[in-house]
Amino acid sequence: MTNDDLKAIKQLLQSPKKIVIVPHKNPDGDALGSTLALQLYLELKMHRCTIIAPNDYPDFLKWLPNESEILKYDSDFKSCDTLIKEADIIFTLDFNALNRVGDMETALSNSSAIKIMIDHHQQPDDYATYTYSDSKMSSTCEMVYHFIDMLGDKNIIDTHIATCLYTGIMTDTGSFRFPSTTSDTLRVVAFLMDCGADHSEIHNQIFDTNSYERLQLLGKALSNLKVIPESKTAYISLSQEELNAFNFKKGDTEGFVNYALSLKDIIFAAIFIEDKQQDIVKISFRSKGDFSVNEFARAHFNGGGHTNAAGGKSDFNLQDTIDKFISILPAYKNALNNE
Ligand code: 5GP
Ligand code: MN
């Protein structure tokens, strides 16, 4: 973001505005943490602010400060459309292309509000009036901290804002272990702890609230794990039937793909999750080192993300999707073995 952009945004926020804040579809800890933190901050600055999520999110995020006030577009699109139409400013957080909001895309495209993107994904689309994009950042939450700091307001970050920001940084960095974690990230995190974020309690809320069924589903996922040693690749699949058998709920498969990536000598991992309702297979990709799953997901599975974490989807059935994946791998054998 240029200095001129920052000046213009400061000017814009001088007087109370009607603001809508939007995370991506299937929002994760970073998407929700960043939108909630920004809302809490803007409300301290006397703006009228609503978060509209495209759809629901997992229970392990339903304790975040102010979370209960989030509107969900797919269950309340009429009032959401009105809010979007009447907004002066729309912030879009933690995504880089409008199609990442699903059915909300039309309403957002048609809106004449000033749009401000804050995001850390690669190759951002050019839809926003002001784009604050930095793919070197660990998380959108780290960027919202910098955004508040650039506006000269880090001194008003309170316990609730700090808790939301800490949560997103923690979840997007795999609890501070991914290469995206920098010494700056940790300085931000230290500052957030000083503002009252309780790191131990936040970790507990996110990771130690498993249901018995989720752990049984993890057992099933691990027993479905397959390895392709010549491509240093491992993958997991879960059919709709298997999901149903363990009473699958949104978010239950979060983090499963990391078990595939944790195998010795494996640098590329995928999980294929059948979704009969949408008639797609949702895929998560993870890698270690320079192998870009963002490029891989963009090239073959209509997706994208970051170098080491990306997602995509397939209209084929589960087995055909896996067969397609396996048939593509030989073309990447050199890249995967050079890592
Ligand atoms: P996850 O695998 O945890 O769902 O997502 C990993 C990363 O890839 C996240 O940063 C997420 O925003 C991004 N991502 C997931 N699914 C998609 C997709 O279908 N399209 C794009 N462009 N990005 C995705
Ligand atoms: Mn993120």
Tell me the total number of β-strands: 12
Query: In terms of structural class, how would the helical and strand content be classed?
Result: alpha/beta
For the biggest sheet, the summary is: 6 strands, parallel
| Count of helix runs | 14
Write the layout of secondary structure elements.
Blueprint: H1 3-12, E1 18-23, H2 29-44, E2 48-53, E3 71-72, H3 77-86, E4 89-93, H4 105-110, E5 114-119, E6 130-133, H5 140-150, H6 159-172, H7 183-194, H8 199-207, H9 212-223, E7 226-228, E8 233-238, H10 240-245, H11 256-261, E9 268-275, E10 280-287, H12 293-300, E11 304-305, E12 309-314, H13 318-328, H14 333-337
Manganese (II) ion (MN) binds near residues 30 and 140.
Write structural notes for this entry.
It is a single chain. This protein has about 350 residues and is of the alpha/beta class. It is globular, with a radius of gyration of 20 Å. The chain folds into two domains: about 5-205, inorganic pyrophosphatase (n-terminal core) (Alpha-Beta Complex), CATH 3.90.1640; about 210-335, Diaminopimelate Epimerase, Chain A, domain 1. Helices cover about 40% and strands about 20% of the residues. It has a six-stranded parallel beta sheet with strand order 3-2-1-4-5-6, sandwiched between helices. Helix 6 (about 160-170) crosses helix 8 (about 200-205). Manganese (II) ion binds next to loops. Guanosine-5'-monophosphate binds near residues 24, 284, 310 and 312.
